[in-house]
Structure formats: structure tokens, C-alpha cells
Amino acid sequence: MVFNFPPHRDPPHPEWSIEQLTEAFKSFDKDKDGQLSKAELRAAFNYLGSRFGYGRGRIACYKADNNNDGLINLHNDELTILVEYAYGCGYKVV
Questions:
Q1: What is the pTM of this model?
Q2: Has residue 6 been placed in a domain?
Q3: Which of 2-6, 53-57, 76-80 comes out lowest in average pLDDT?
Q4: Does 5 fall in a domain?
Q5: What is the model's pLDDT at position 15?
Q6: Does residue 11 sit within a domain?
Q7: Please, are residues 19 and 94 in contact by the beta-carbon 8 Å criterion?
Q8: Could you tell me which residue ranges the EF-hand domain spans (predicted)?
Q9: Distances (CA, A) of 53 to 26, 38, 80
Q10: What is the pLDDT of residues 3-29, one digit of tens each?
Q11: Please, which contacts does 44-48 make with residues 24 or more away whose CB atoms are closer than 8 Å?
């Protein structure tokens, strides 16, 4: 017997503009060091509606952390890559 389950997707998200996504991520820089840790990324993805914020945060860090320091810099292209990843996860950019 073969089971064909549909691929997992997070529930539908509200539509976010690029600026809103960018500001949402920036707002989770709780220690104001200009970078997002994995914990801050997890909290941001939870805020955006992800049921799997921990996994989303880890994958986002893997994809966007160009200098491999374990943090997402909010003042360079790492933030752009992070926003593009969020869009690819289904967070609609209008």
C-alpha cells in the first residue's frame, strides 16, 4: 500500500510588502546589534505565521548567512536573501 501525502505547507499567510517583511525582520533584533540570531529568526518566522519557526530560522540562516558567523546581518545582502527566502516560503510580497 502506497500513501501519497501532499507536501507540507504552512498555512496561508497575509500578504506582506517587501518593506513590511524587511521591517518585521528588523524588529526582531532584540539586542539591537544589527544582526539576527537563530533564536531571533525563529521568533520572527513565528510572528509571520510559520508553524515551524525553528526550522524556518535554521534554514534561513543557512541560506542567508554569507560569512558563516551564525547571524544574519541587517545592513547588507544577507537581509535581502532572508526576505527572498521568506517570499519563497509563501509569504506573499505585494
A1: 0.78
A2: no
A3: 2-6
A4: no
A5: 72
A6: no
A7: no
A8: 16-51
A9: 16, 10, 19
A10: 444 444 544 455 777 888 899 999 999
A11: 45/86, 48/13, 48/16, 48/21, 48/24, 48/86, 48/91
Amino acid 90 reads: G
Give the per-residue pLDDT at 11.
45
> In terms of residue numbers, what domain contains 84?
18-89
Q: Which residue has the cell 530560522?
A: 57
Whether 67 is covered by a domain: the verdict is yes
Q: Which three cell numbers stand for residue 57?
A: 530560522
Q: Domains in the chain: how many in total?
A: 1
State which H helix or E strand residue 60 sits in: helix 53-64
- SS3 at position 76: coil
List all residues 6 or more positions away from 26 whose beta carbon is below 8 Å from its beta carbon.
74, 79
Question: Which phi and psi (to 5°) does residue 43 adopt?
Answer: -65, -40
C-alpha cell at 69: 558567523
